[in-house]
Amino acid sequence: MNVCLINDSFPPVIDGVANVVLNYARILTESKEAGVMVGTPRYPNAEYDIYPYKVIPYQSIDTTQIVKGYRAGNPFDKKAIDAMADFRPDIIHTHSPVTSAIMARILRAETDAPVVFTYHTKFDVDIARAFKLEFLQNESAKALTDNISACDEVWTVSRGAGENLRSLGYEGEYRVVSNGVDFKKGRVDEKAVAKATAGFDLPIGLPLFLFVGRIMKYKGLPLIIDALKLLSEDGVDFRMVFIGDGADLNEMQKKAVENGFSVDIKSNNGNIIQLEKSEKPGKIIFAGAEHDRDVLRAWNTRADLFFFPSTYDTNGIVVREAAACGLASVLIKDSCAAEGITDGRNGFLIDETAASMAQLLKGTGCDHDKMHEAGQHAMDEIYISWDDAVSDAYSRYQELIDLKKSGKLVSGRKEPFDYLAKVFAKVDEGVKKIESTLEEAYEINGMV
Known about the structure:
Blueprint: E1 2-6, H1 16-30, E2 35-41, E3 54-58, E4 60-62, E5 71-73, H2 78-86, E6 91-94, H3 99-111, E7 115-119, H4 123-130, H5 134-149, E8 153-156, H6 159-167, E9 175-176, H7 190-196, E10 208-212, H8 221-233, E11 239-243, H9 249-258, E12 262-266, E13 272-276, E14 283-288, H10 293-302, E15 305-308, H11 317-324, E16 329-332, E17 348-350, H12 354-363, H13 368-381, H14 386-406, H15 415-444
Parallel strand pairs: 1-2, 1-6, 2-3, 6-7, 7-8, 8-9, 10-11, 10-15, 11-14, 12-14, 15-16, 16-17
Antiparallel strand pairs: 4-5, 12-13
């Protein structure tokens, strides 16, 4: 089987969906012996020949000042499309509903391979951030859902993600295909934990709470800090560790100080700096970004509870990563991340308020036996490896290929767009030929 994976992000950009594509590509190559090709926007000076599969970086423009860290790809890059078509994919899997989905549709017109789309992110939130006017939000949502509807099959990473997609106006069917985690199942040994957490003020016996992810307010971080303030006012001592970086880091550090906490931060050179000292019980630690997966496993092993009060995320891979290490999570009732969680057994569910979290922590947060028992249940009941997740996807790929061959696959193809996409690709190719001819003429005549 030849599989073409297309996404708007890929290293050097690392985000949740880029991580998904990396794991799909790795496991399909290693375990399934599939041919894999990845299409992604090109980043300057990035290395694309270091992978055991082919990566096609296509033309992009710098939009990093508009969307922090991201470049926008040109889905009509004829050279890249030809390279992907020459690969002769049996299945095309796009993980973004914007330029990647457009490129996937063009590639389908060239190869007739089915297109699968996975909905990872709540785009209604992103659209609302990007456009303040309601009519622009509505038009953007319509363009997005039209693109998604044109795919041959739509996957979502959770039931809640599927319902969010419907709220945008999508009316088709969808299949829930869960993401996995690349953490091994099991706790890390004590020596590794001690090494990973060395230098931080973590007294044995005090509850240790953990958050890992981008430091963004929409992850529910203000709620955490406000809940901890209530806990501290009740005289409960604890340590709270935030691991990650993000646009709201400084604001969250300031909020922790304003709430009266002792605050430690890890500087860029690795030193632990005391940002603020307080006599109040409880301390908040900002440990910085951490990309070493073994170090993250050690932190998840050391902690007593994982906090993920996000209603934005559609799946919450970090919750499954915590479960891999026997760590239970505190989640918002009815959030996507809370799917599969039974309150008090393999996790803990709260209302989306600081008071609700504080109330839980006053009891459960000081009961080590209860926290660790829930963590063991989480490991046994909600953990899913990437090997299992990709194996499920691979089986469905084969079913779709067979349905296509038998003529039973109901395609989402939209012919007018697909025809125009091919025309645009041809025009793009013609423009490049003209540019090349002009460049040669300039060189011959000594022009700059």
